[in-house]
Design brief:
297 residues; 2 domains; Arc Repressor Mutant, subunit A; nine-stranded mixed β-sheet
């Protein structure tokens, strides 16, 4: 089972991407341990794939523009398609998450199929169904948690015919999800600020290595600099430049771990004006120098 330890961004869609998902079987599972990341956080992102997860050990916080939900050991959850989110955990506590992701087509078939139209899209299009918490103390949630654990175990072991059993397992999960969320399945328009913040995050993903001004980021969503700042604060609880700095550090971590490029070259590539400034900020964020981080990884 692979551990997730880097953030990949599709250059076209700007969605999070993971190498394990194959077009002929659009499902993947992995272990996520946030202690691999600077500040013990997986930065703001979104992806078309549906995400379901189980907390094997410790606790984990899911941050959405509308608030934060804590998941503890033994609990699980459903994260809807294209939901902007960030995850964090405490430095002093363990945090081991079993995570599964799959495309809507994995359970619903083609876009025009009856299953997609009747059972999948009503959940994907419901603005009130961004994140669903599953708790073992709630009787109706226990079968869904069993599906989470069984699906993960199947993918880990991959016995003969596991693809068929795994798809059946995800269909069972979806049927249970439909039942417990029936009263919340009301379609509606995506909030305009959600669209704007994604436009600006996509712009940063494209231009983080350049010398960016607030006006540049704001223009990506056709906003004034002041409105841009308000949007970041309202949606993410941070400022545009604080997000940009964190994003640059994350990209630098990826390059330190996956390449042998000199530290100075990585600093310049990630938008830092000098190696010394990069080293100081990197130590503040990770508690170690870039070279120490590279050796650990």
């Amino acid at each position: 089972m692979q551990y997730i330890c880097s953030v990949l961004v599709d250059p076209q869609s700007k969605h999070q991407t993971l190498d394990l998902m194959s077009p002929d079987f659009p499902y993947q599972a992995q272990i996520c341990d946030l202690h691999y990341y600077p500040d013990n956080l997986f930065p703001w992102h979104w992806h078309r794939e549906i995400e379901i997860f189980y907390i094997r050990e410790g606790e984990l916080d899911y941050h959405l523009p509308g608030g934060t939900v804590r998941f503890e050991e033994g609990q699980g959850g459903f994260l809807n398609s294209n939901v902007l989110h960030m995850t964090t955990c405490k430095h002093e506590k363990p945090c081991i998450q079993e995570e599964q992701q799959f495309s809507p087509e994995f359970i619903g078939g083609s876009a025009g199929s009856r299953i997609m139209q009747k059972y999948v899209l009503p959940i994907l299009d419901a603005p009130g169904l961004e994140l669903v918490k599953l708790d073992p103390t709630v009787p109706d949630h226990r079968p869904l948690l069993d599906c989470l654990c069984h699906g993960f175990a199947l993918y880990d072991a991959q016995p003969e015919g596991f693809e068929l059993e795994l798809q059946r397992c995800m269909l069972d999960f979806w049927q249970g999800l439909c039942q417990i969320t029936a009263s919340m399945q009301k379609s509606g328009a995506t909030p305009v600020n959600d669209q704007r913040i994604k436009q600006m995050l996509s712009y940063i993903a494209d231009h983080y290595g350049e010398k960016l001004q607030l006006e540049d980021i704001a223009a990506a969503a056709y906003l004034s600099p002041r409105a841009c700042g308000r949007c970041f604060q309202t949606q993410l609880g941070t400022t545009p430049f604080a997000y940009l700095l964190d994003y640059r550090i994350q990209r630098a971590c990826d390059l330190l771990a996956s390449t042998d490029q000199p530290v100075g070259e990585i600093a310049a590539r990630c938008g830092f004006s000098s190696s010394s400034y990069f080293g100081r900020i990197f130590r503040d964020k990770t508690g170690q120098s870039p070279n120490e981080y590279r050796k650990r990884r």
